[in-house]
């Protein structure tokens, strides 16, 4: 099977049923996407496929088509993505475990809706954060929207 | 030994009981410092100053922050304690958890182990604290919990920084042949203002490390602090926004295998029969092995990747033995009710004659209510995991844990080897909340690694295993009785709480041979130790015998007693026809309770307590002092569309000293969300002897769309320092229940509140 992750092409030999998450983590050693639940209920495994947020724990690798972006692929020429910058400014992460997923969900939201309302944020940001960083996430998204010129 | 023995063994049960009961130690050993664990692992040319500071040959300054970073920001503030006195900035240093070592014992957590209110400064309370502190050193338990890291480190880590700086300056002075007093240290550079010469720490580190620091270290005045008292960017922030592989689950080693566990869903029960064949047919599965330890019995599947291990575990056909406890929650509840109606196991903090007053008070001025909370899982975002490798007789473990010395202790006793043969590496933790004070995951990995011929193996639990094999926040049932005077003040309160013995269960797992006796204050904390001037009061615990594993869940006993106690005070206020804020204030004195009054008044001010609200809205108030920090919260809810929305939370805390305001506020928000999450639907229930919940779809927590707006203020009036990580949790569910009453007239006394009201 062929996969394109963060602009690099890989040839993967794995059980076709293996979720994309485990192919990324255990076979390609890309550890940004995290395992939280395995049943699409928490979002810590979120990756972007052609820009859309996908819960990679519930997507068989054989069914995956399109360019995959993980948190590792957000940096550009050593510069953080504006959403990551906003996350830094607002000191969003606590334990940090959910944050790769949160950041990618926010990137997808801002691509679609450059100037989101509170309601847009509530609707799009469904990932679980057990540390309760939601108020900081919300503030960082609004700040990132501003920084990106919304 | 005499003091230790008398106070701890006879009068109460605490961590110190371990030292008193388990080991006889002389004064000599107390005086002797623990060995510096950094000496053993230092690289050629490293200058090791003390257990907290090293400077490498290349000039890299490393600060060891021996408390587990699980999201609470402990590493940053601990590093700031050292850096402040060392005179370096936080971007000049590297921060590490460091090795497992008794040298990093936590005395603050032990000191508050006695049955005394945080504001109790009586001779007995103070000498108990001192005794516990001594015991802590004997035990040498390196542990992160009890919101104690800063209290423990405040003196010793600033001293470590100051000691290192002092000898660095001395070394520079010797080099220039001048007096050290005239030199200046700043940003890792020592200058001589007279001559204009300067030298970096790195250049004099090797000679400095040979010097002995003076015994009378003078610390900076808080007025001169550059880092402390100000919000600092977290040292690990960039790693956490770039998805860096810093967690236990990310550990990757050469030749590593992967595994998972499938433990008996009935606690204590064994495997009756099992057929591994279907598992062994799965591509990637290598082995199915039995796994038995003090934590339970089951099977482990070793594979070439995590997914294969998960699939394999699922495929094994297994029949489990029956459980030796009531099969369902209803049966368990009967045990709680029975315990409640039997004689109390012990009581704490009582005074006067509440039963007498109650019997003399007319019925219409009586209150009698029963509250109940369920078992709860910790549900850390990162499921339990650990990686282990045996090299001959040496065991190395990598895992996210809150107590590396307990990882070592439990593995050493399981395998009958010396602790010196076990290396523990603590990674970042994807959440702890008390779950990682247990060390089952580490022991399992060590057992599995016995089967991999020297190869490392990472054992990752599924979310289902994690949810169904926790050390749960215990279920608890409480009966509160109160009597009001004609003026509408509480003249008596009589409290009975039925809960399994928490401290005994946790410590019993760690030290099965240590006899434990005496009152377990964790059953009553959050009730008996609260600021009150009620004259007649009794707080009694009824220990429930139930072999379900229970443990420390963010704020421990305060997590249930905070809800009971503050709900009850609210009920009493309404019965007396009084404002719940004013009612609380009249039951506190102006001396030792002053900080409580301070946070209550402030939270009333910022929430505009008492101002009119539109139809369908209501506010509730609650206060709990826990882990030394006074916290008052007001919650505002709206039910106008038929669903309950938590609109806003105002929170004022007084921890005495705030070392990092932004981080402290973040912890209060986090703690409150953790507390509110349980109200939204969390419960662990049983049927067929097994936990019924298994994943986030049936054990969820607050999500973005349910999250209220927060307004947090910090005060610094308390005479003692308090913690940050847990005190935000206890008052939140009570303030919420009280707000629901204000909005709807409906009093909910059972958690989760969602059983009786629909949340958005
Ligand atoms: S791990 Fe994929 S949604 Fe939770
Ligand atoms: S930061 Fe810990 S789970 Fe979100």
Number of domains of chain B: 3
Characterize the main sheet of chain B. Answer: 7 strands, mixed
Q: Characterize the largest beta sheet of chain A: strand count, sense, and whether it forms a barrel.
A: 5 strands, mixed
Number of spatially distinct domains of chain A:
2
CATH class of the largest domain in chain B: Alpha Beta
Count of DSSP helices of chain A?
5
Write the layout of secondary structure elements.
The complex is a heterodimer of chains A (150) and B (760).
Chain A: E1 2-5, E2 8-11, H1 20-27, E3 46-49, E4 52-55, E5 67-69, H2 82-89, H3 99-112, H4 118-124, H5 134-147
Helix pairs in contact in A: 2-5
Chain B: H1 2-11, H2 16-22, H3 27-31, H4 37-41, E1 47-50, E2 53-55, E3 61-64, H5 74-86, E4 93-96, H6 107-111, H7 123-139, H8 149-176, E5 184-186, E6 189-191, E7 198-200, H9 201-208, H10 237-241, E8 257-263, E9 271-275, H11 277-280, E10 285-293, E11 296-303, H12 306-315, E12 317-320, H13 329-340, E13 346-347, H14 354-360, E14 366-373, E15 385-391, E16 394-399, H15 404-415, E17 422-426, H16 440-449, E18 457-460, H17 463-468, E19 476-484, E20 490-499, H18 502-510, E21 536-543, H19 558-575, H20 580-586, H21 594-606, E22 617-626, E23 629-638, E24 645-654, H22 661-679, E25 686-687, E26 690-691, E27 709-714, H23 731-744
Parallel strand pairs in B: 3-4, 8-18, 16-17, 20-21, 24-27
Antiparallel strand pairs in B: 1-2, 2-3, 5-6, 6-7, 8-11, 9-12, 10-11, 13-21, 14-19, 15-16, 15-18, 19-20, 22-23, 23-24, 25-26
The complex binds FE2/S2 (inorganic) cluster (FES) (2 copies).
What does this 3D model show about the protein?
The complex is a heterodimer of chains A (150) and B (760). Helices cover 34% and strands 13% of the residues of chain A. In chain A, strands 2-1-5-3-4 form a five-stranded mixed sheet, covered by helices on one side. Chain A has helices at 20-27, 82-89, 99-112, 118-124, 134-147; strands at 2-5, 8-11, 46-49, 52-55, 67-69. Chain A contains five helices and five strands. Chain A is of the alpha+beta class. In chain B, α1 (2-11) packs across α2 and α5 (74-86) packs parallel to α8. In chain B, the strands form seven sheets. Chain B has a seven-stranded mixed sheet with strand order 10-11-8-18-15-16-17. Chain B has three domains: 33-106 and 141-241, Aldehyde oxidase/xanthine dehydrogenase, molybdopterin binding domain (Aldehyde Oxidoreductase, domain 4, 2-Layer Sandwich); 248-323 and 384-460, Aldehyde Oxidoreductase, domain 4 (2-Layer Sandwich); 329-376 and 472-755, 2-Layer Sandwich (Aldehyde Oxidoreductase, domain 4), CATH 3.30.365.10. With 760 residues, chain B is of the alpha+beta class. Chain B has 23 helices and 27 strands. Classes of the chains: A alpha+beta (150), B alpha+beta (760). Chains A and B meet through α1, α2, α3, α4 and α5 of A and α10, α12 and α22 of B.
């Amino acid at each position: 099977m062929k996969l394109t992750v963060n602009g690099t092409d890989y040839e993967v030999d794995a059980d076709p049923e293996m979720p994309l998450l485990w192919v990324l983590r255990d076979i390609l050693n890309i550890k940004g996407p995290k395992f939280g639940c395995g049943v699409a209920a928490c979002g810590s495994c979120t990756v972007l496929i052609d820009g859309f947020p996908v819960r990679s724990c519930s997507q068989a690798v054989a069914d995956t088509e399109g360019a995959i972006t993980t948190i590792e692929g957000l940096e550009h020429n050593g510069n953080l993505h504006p959403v990551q910058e906003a996350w830094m400014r607002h000191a969003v992460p606590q334990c940090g475990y959910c944050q790769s997923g949160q950041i990618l969900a926010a990137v997808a939201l801002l691509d679609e809706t450059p100037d989101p309302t509170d309601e847009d944020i509530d609707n799009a940001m469904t990932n679980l954060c057990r540390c309760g960083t939601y108020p900081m996430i919300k503030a960082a998204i609004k700040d990132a929207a501003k920084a990106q010129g919304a | 030994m005499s003091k230790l023995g008398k106070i701890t063994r006879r009068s109460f049960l605490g961590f110190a009981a371990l030292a008193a009961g388990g080991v006889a130690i002389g004064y000599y050993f107390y005086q002797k410092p623990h060995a510096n664990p950094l000496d053993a692992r230092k690289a050629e040319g490293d200058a090791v100053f003390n257990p907290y500071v090293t400077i490498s040959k290349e000039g890299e300054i490393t600060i060891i922050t021996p408390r587990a970073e699980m999201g609470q920001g402990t590493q940053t503030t601990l590093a700031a304690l050292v850096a402040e006195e060392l005179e370096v900035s936080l971007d000049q240093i590297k921060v590490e958890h460091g090795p497992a070592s008794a040298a990093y014992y936590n005395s603050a957590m032990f000191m508050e182990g006695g049955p005394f209110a945080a504001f109790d400064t009586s001779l007995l309370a103070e000498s108990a604290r001192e005794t516990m502190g001594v015991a802590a050193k004997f035990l040498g338990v390196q542990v992160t919990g009890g919101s104690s890291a800063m209290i423990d480190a405040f003196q010793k880590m600033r001293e470590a920084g100051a000691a290192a700086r002092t000898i660095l300056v001395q070394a520079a002075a010797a080099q220039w042949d001048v007096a050290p007093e005239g030199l200046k240290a700043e940003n890792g550079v020592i200058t001589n203002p007279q001559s204009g010469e300067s030298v970096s720490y790195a250049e004099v580190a090797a000679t400095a490390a040979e010097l002995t620091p003076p015994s009378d270290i003078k610390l900076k005045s808080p007025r001169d602090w550059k880092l402390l008292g100000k919000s600092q960017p977290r040292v690990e922030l960039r790693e956490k926004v770039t998805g860096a592989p810093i967690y236990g689950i990310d550990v990757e080693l050469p030749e590593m295998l992967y595994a998972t566990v499938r433990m008996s869903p009935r606690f204590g029960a064994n495997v009756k029969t099992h057929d591994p064949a279907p598992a062994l047919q799965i591509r990637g599965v290598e082995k199915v092995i039995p796994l038995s330890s003090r934590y339970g019995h089951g099977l482990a599947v070793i594979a070439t990747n995590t997914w294969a291990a998960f699939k394999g575990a699922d495929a094994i056909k297994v029949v489990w033995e029956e459980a030796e406890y009531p099969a369902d929650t209803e049966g368990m509840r009967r045990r709680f009710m029975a315990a409640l109606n039997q004689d109390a196991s012990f009581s704490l903090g009582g005074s006067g004659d509440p039963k007498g007053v109650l019997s003399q008070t007319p019925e219409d001025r009586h209150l009698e209510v029963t509250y109940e909370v369920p078992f709860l899982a910790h549900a850390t975002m990162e499921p339990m995991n650990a990686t282990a490798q045996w090299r001959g007789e040496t065991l190395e473990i990598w895992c996210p844990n809150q107590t590396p010395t307990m990882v070592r202790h439990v593995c050493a006793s399981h395998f009958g080897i010396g602790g010196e043969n076990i290396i523990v590496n603590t990674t970042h933790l994807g959440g702890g909340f008390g779950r990682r004070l247990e060390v089952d995951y580490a022991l399992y990995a060590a057992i599995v690694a016995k089967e991999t011929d020297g190869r490392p193996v990472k054992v990752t639990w599924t979310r289902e295993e994690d949810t169904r094999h926790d050390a749960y926040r215990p279920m608890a049932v409480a009966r509160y009785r109160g009597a009001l005077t004609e003026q509408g003040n509480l003249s008596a309160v009589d409290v009975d709480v039925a809960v399994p013995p928490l401290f005994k269960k946790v410590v019993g797992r760690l030290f099965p041979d240590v006899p434990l006796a005496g009152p377990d204050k964790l059953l009553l904390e959050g009730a008996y130790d609260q600021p009150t001037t009620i004259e007649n009061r009794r707080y009694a615990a009824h220990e429930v015998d139930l072999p379900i594993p229970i443990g420390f869940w963010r704020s421990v006993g305060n997590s249930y007693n905070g809800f009971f106690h503050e709900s009850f005070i609210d009920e009493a206020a309404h019965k007396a026809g009084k404002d719940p804020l004013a009612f609380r204030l009249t039951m506190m004195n102006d001396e030792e309770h002053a900080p409580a009054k301070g946070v209550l008044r402030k939270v009333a001010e910022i929430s505009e307590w008492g101002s009119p609200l539109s139809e369908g809205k209501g506010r509730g108030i609650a206060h709990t002092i826990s882990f030394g920090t006074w916290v008052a919260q007001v919650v505002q809810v709206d039910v106008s569309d038929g669903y309950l929305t938590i609109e806003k939370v105002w929170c004022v805390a007084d921890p005495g000293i705030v070392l990092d305001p932004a981080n402290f506020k973040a912890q209060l928000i986090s703690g409150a969300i953790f507390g509110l999450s349980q109200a939204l639907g969390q419960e662990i229930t049983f049927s067929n002897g097994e936990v019924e919940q298994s994943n986030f779809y049936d054990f969820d927590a607050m999500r973005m769309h349910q999250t209220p707006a927060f307004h947090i203020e910090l005060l610094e009036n308390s005479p003692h320092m308090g913690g940050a990580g847990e005190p935000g949790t206890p008052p939140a569910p009570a303030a919420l229940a009280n707000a629901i009453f204000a909005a709807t007239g409906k009093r909910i006394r059972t958690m989760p509140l969602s059983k009786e009201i629909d949340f958005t």
